Amino acid sequence: MQQEELHQFHGKTRRDFMKQSSLLAGGLLAAPMLSQANFFSGADNVIKIALIGCGGRGTGAAVQALSTKENVQLVAMADAFADKLNASYNNIKDEVGDKPGRLNVKEENKFTGFDAYQKAIALADVVILATPPGFRPIHFEEAVKQGKHIFMEKPVATDPAGIKRVLEAAEVAKSKKLNVVVGLQRRYQTSYREMYKRFQDGIIGDVVSMQVWWNQGALWVRPRKPEYTEMEYQMRNWYYFNWLCGDHIVEQHIHNIDVGNWFMNDYPVTAMGMGGRSVRTGKEFGEIYDHHFVEYRYGNGVVMNSQCRHWKDADSKVDEEIVGRKGRMYMDKAVIKDHKGKVLYQFDKSKENQPYQAEHDELFAAIAKGEYKFWDAERAAKTTLTAIIGRLATYSGQTIAFDKALNSGLNLQPAKYAFDAAPPIVPDASGNYAYAKPGITRYFS
């Protein structure tokens, strides 16, 4: 993206961002209604979609986009790997077989390689960004530069430098009135929205503390093959390398952290915590930790305790609990109780929606109507940074400040994106990767 296009965020703080977010939420910066001509091309009013990143989440997002009520077509696909793209295409074809005409990807519009995203984006009105998150900033920049509406998966970066790029591109997206939805789907889930309405009405009073969890068992591992370069191996096994994934506190636990930020209508000032590799210790697990516990402190003194882990056969818990002066909100069960245990509100779970589908339904409905309604990128970037400072805190044992991290310039990305290039971290002679050690690993000092 041309530098002169970008609104410079250098020197801005968390409080500056919150002020602008409040203006947007209050409608003071709301965009005017736009005609359909501003939103998609073609006399037949088909909304053309490009899928960037053809893994499981990208495939699912494409199916959900094609399952909306609008006149949509998937016309282009891009991935670093041809086998991933072809498998995704076949899976999408199976899923949307009863919707003829929605899958319209010609062979010449299936692009592979590191520059594939640019070619696919050019053919679409709306792009789905679902690669490993380390690539999200450059893909988002390109989609904004080309004037496309965007659905992008969380998280939106893996390092503070990437967050800066997303925030800058988000400003350009606003100026162009481009709808941007980010896959933090709890904000599109009926039970969470109903709980938030009661929270705004004061049912539990002021927030006193919050607890958020993403504790689960083991995840997939893709074994190394002799023909892989180191770059290809890491990209295929992307979950275990920070430049690609950001660690599971960023890649998964961001969902729960986002709920805390949403209900606080703010972002933490600092993070401190602990973590390590106590169970998942083999070389196949790259450099990431298997557990994190972080204390996030907001400007008003409220603390959010955050824990996530990947431990086989240990108890699982994925949930959020908001504690107020008058009661508690148990988000997964969608129930609110006072401090004596009396139920103040219970959401009827039979009325729950499918939030992954709702994200696309709402996005494509707005586009079809020529409305500008969604500017998720800024808040998603700040919640991603919240997760990142948690990782930096557990890796180092330091207390990490939100604003200092944002302006640190810390960049995990490789100097060159190519299969024969060296990734930012390489194994030793035994095939093991160095990982962070609290008290030894240091940031910003």
TrEMBL record:
<dbReference type="InterPro" id="IPR000683">
    <property type="entry name" value="Gfo/Idh/MocA-like_OxRdtase_N"/>
</dbReference>
<dbReference type="Pfam" id="PF01408">
    <property type="entry name" value="GFO_IDH_MocA"/>
</dbReference>
<dbReference type="Pfam" id="PF22725">
    <property type="entry name" value="GFO_IDH_MocA_C3"/>
</dbReference>
<feature type="domain" description="GFO/IDH/MocA-like oxidoreductase">
    <location>
        <begin position="192"/>
        <end position="329"/>
    </location>
</feature>
<protein>
    <submittedName>
        <fullName>Secreted protein</fullName>
    </submittedName>
</protein>
<dbReference type="GO" id="GO:0000166">
    <property type="term" value="F:nucleotide binding"/>
</dbReference>
<dbReference type="InterPro" id="IPR006311">
    <property type="entry name" value="TAT_signal"/>
</dbReference>
<dbReference type="InterPro" id="IPR036291">
    <property type="entry name" value="NAD(P)-bd_dom_sf"/>
</dbReference>
<dbReference type="InterPro" id="IPR050463">
    <property type="entry name" value="Gfo/Idh/MocA_oxidrdct_glycsds"/>
</dbReference>
<feature type="domain" description="Gfo/Idh/MocA-like oxidoreductase N-terminal">
    <location>
        <begin position="47"/>
        <end position="174"/>
    </location>
</feature>
<dbReference type="InterPro" id="IPR019546">
    <property type="entry name" value="TAT_signal_bac_arc"/>
</dbReference>
<dbReference type="InterPro" id="IPR055170">
    <property type="entry name" value="GFO_IDH_MocA-like_dom"/>
</dbReference>
